[in-house]
Write a structure and sequence with these properties.
It is a single chain. The chain contains seven helices and ten strands. With 220 residues, the protein is of the alpha/beta class. The chain has a single domain, classed as TIM Barrel. A five-stranded mixed beta sheet has the order 3-2-1-9-10. A five-stranded mixed beta sheet has the order 4-5-6-7-8. It binds zinc ion (ZN) (2 copies). One zinc ion binds next to loops.
């Protein structure tokens, strides 16, 4: 069963993905489930709950902007405030029964970087992000292996066409969110899909800088 464990919706502030269209895209791509990981808000997930699609499991989650970089919080029902130190953010996620995952650790600006990942107690590392380069994903994969941590994967889609383009594939059947979390933590699943291309990397740099100016030099 394939799960895109990292997509964004309009509630992220930097995506055009309408929640309803997002769920339809998941059906079309044959996904078993999706985690709408909007920046610092569970609104995307909450809206999706009201418009469920048969066969698409909704995994609650949010992408938290900690002081040092992005952290994926799965299985949480409450937002974690942005801007906190990594350790505190991880603790708050775990305190509500969630799992804390280091998002795209090698990405410039928004990734935590290797040192920070090593110094904290993450439950898993995102090793295949559809918006990261193959090299950065390989480095994340090597880090997870070396640290003996399980892994997650997702497209990090901000636009409809890339929904499901990178995914986590469970080794066993999953019938509930708990099953998916257990599969992730087992480390027995696999990942698949695309990586960022060279041309996209160029475009992405320009987009980031333009948006950064637009936000008055604030990071996402
Ligand atoms: Zn991110
Ligand atoms: Zn993201």
């Amino acid at each position: 069963m394939r799960f895109d464990l990292h997509v964004h919706s309009v509630h992220s502030g930097d995506s055009d993905n309408g929640v309803e269209e997002l769920l339809d895209a998941c059906v079309r791509k044959g996904l078993a489930g999706v985690a709408i990981m909007d920046h610092n808000t569970l609104q995307g997930y909450r809206q999706a709950l009201s418009m469920q699609r048969e066969g698409i499991m909704l995994i609650p989650g949010v992408e938290v902007s900690s002081a040092q970089g992005h952290i994926l919080a799965y299985n949480v029902e409450e937002e974690v405030p942005p801007g906190l130190e990594v350790g505190e953010t991880v603790d708050l996620i775990k305190a509500q029964g969630g799992i804390a995952v280091a998002a795209h650790p090698y990405r410039l600006w928004s990734g935590l970087g290797e040192k920070v990942v090593r110094e904290h107690h993450f439950d898993a590392i995102e090793v295949h992000n559809g918006r990261s380069t193959r090299r950065h994903n390989q480095m994340a994969s090597a880090l997870a292996e070396e640290m003996g941590l399980p892994f997650t994967a997702g497209s990090d889609s901000h636009e409809m066409r890339t929904v499901g383009s990178a995914y986590f594939e469970s080794a066993r059947e999953c019938h509930s969110v708990e099953d998916v979390i257990r599969e992730v933590l087992s480390g027995e699943g696999s990942t698949g899909g695309r990586h960022r291309s060279r041309a996209e990397t160029m475009g992405y740099g320009v987009k980031c800088i333009t948006e950064w100016f637009g936000r008055g030099f604030r990071r996402m």
